[in-house]
Amino acid sequence: MAESVLVFAEHQAGKLSRPTWEAMAAGQQLAQQVGGSVSAVLLGHQIAPLASELAALELQEVQCVDSPLLADYTADGYTYALREVVQQQQPRFVVFSHTYMVRDFVPKLATSLRHALVSDCLGYRCEGERLIFVRQVFQGKFVADVEFAGEPPHFVSFQAAAFREDSVRRGTASAKITSLPTTFSAETIRTSPGERFREAKQAVDLSQAEIIVAVGRGIKAPENLELAKKLAEALGAEIGASRPICDSGWLPMDRQVGSSGQTVAPKLYIALGISGAIQHMVGMKGSHTVVAINKDKEAPIFEAATYGIVGDLFEIVPALTEEIKKLKAS
Questions:
Q1: Is 155's pLDDT higher than 80?
Q2: Identical fold, 5-188 and 206-329
Q3: Which residues make beta-bridge pairs with 62?
Q4: CATH assignment, 5-188
Q5: In the 3-class helix/strand/coil scheme, how is the chain assigned residue by residue?
Q6: What does CATH list as the number for 206-329?
Q7: pTM of the prediction?
Q8: For FRET with 194, which of 100, 183, 218, 232 sits at 20 to 30 Å CA-CA?
């Protein structure tokens, strides 16, 4: 299975997480690139329904490690269980989405096998037979090209929204589901799980929002946020912001979109008065449709925009809000 790709399927509260679908899309594309097969690996307890859900995808196999010792996530348990799978299967690549869970246990896993982890990648490209993985460094100020050295397996995680979840290919028939044994014991697990970390503790998780109206310094003053809120209300959207807005205390920090805030991938992202600093662009690059309104026609945000409006947002946004209300009323 030297050319195979193994994708880690993360789940929470009995459901496959959104990053899992992005990781599956990454794994399918990577397997196609190297001319190999792709399988999923699922760890946990009583995970048969999740395995069946994964089996509907275009996968060779869904490999399950089902144990009461994996009912709750621990870095020790997941490391030992997945290490056994990797040692048995010997895939070329093991693919993850760069979530908090992955950041916690995968460095330990890769190190225990004396292999490298290239983390938080934006994507990859092929140059002849070389696969080059691309990741940002120094808060997105630079982009680094990274290649794996040595023999596989190679461990790689991709940044949220690096691959679109709706690009996952579904299979014409159910993939094979295989139950894998595990040999680790309760003594192996040296920690007990605490309360699950939540990035956004106040009001909203922007990563799940389908429509976001985001504001930048072009909004000028906190009292002008009402314009954006009225537009968001008309659209049924959530409010987001660039870092300066949150740093100034105009909106809470859990509304920040960017490399030091939340990474989002809504169906519609409306950027009001946002210039488009690279740190912000990193957080919203997975958006399906981007509408940018800015009076500066040279603003970098227009490079990422599906539709761009050069003009005064204080004139455009109220008119846009009224038109949306009319459409909804008709």
A1: yes
A2: yes
A3: 40, 177
A4: 3.40.50.620
A5: CCCCEEEEECEECCEECHHHHHHHHHHHHHHHHHCCCEEEEEEECCCHHHHHHHHCECCCEEEEEECHHHCCCCHHHHHHHHHHHHHHHCCCEEEEECCHHHHHHHHHHHHHCCCCEEEEEEEEEEECCEEEEEEEECCCCEEEEECCCCCCCEEEEECCCCCCHHHCCECCCCCEEEECCCCCCHHHCCCCCCCCCCCCCCCCCHHHCCEEEEECHHHCCHHHHHHHHHHHHHHCCEEEECHHHHHCCCCCHHHEECCCCECCCCCEEEEECCCCCHHHHHHHCCCCEEEEEECCCCCCHHHHCCEEEECCHHHHHHHHHHHHHHHHHC
A6: 3.40.50.1220
A7: 0.76
A8: 183
pLDDT of 139 = 66
- Distance (Å, whole) CA 182 – CA 83: 10
Residue 200 pLDDT grade (very low, low, confident, very high; cuts 50, 70, 90): very low
Question: Does the N-terminal peptide bond of residue 152 adopt cis geometry, omega within 30 degrees of 0?
Answer: no
Phi, psi of 209 (to 5 degrees): -75, 140
Q: Mind listing the pLDDT tens digit for each residue in 273-299?
A: 999 988 898 889 889 899 999 999 999
Geometric angle at alpha carbon 9, from 132 and 190, rounded to 5°: 105
Residue 166 or residue 220, greater confidence:
220
Q: Check residue 208 and give its pLDDT.
A: 80
Residue spans per domain, the chain: 5-188, 206-329
Burial of 248 (0-12, 13-18, 19+ CB in 10 A): exposed
Report the percentage of the chain scoring pLDDT > 90.
71
- What are 211's two structure tokens? 């429509």
| C-alpha span between 328 and 187 (Å, rounded) | 60
- Give the residue among 199, 215, 180 at the shortest CA–CA distance from 301: 215
pLDDT (tens digit per residue) in 237-259: 999 999 999 999 999 998 999 87
Which residue is listed with tokens 């008709």? 330
According to the model, what pLDDT value does residue 197 have? 59
Q: Dihedrals φ, ψ of 16, to 5°?
A: -65, 135
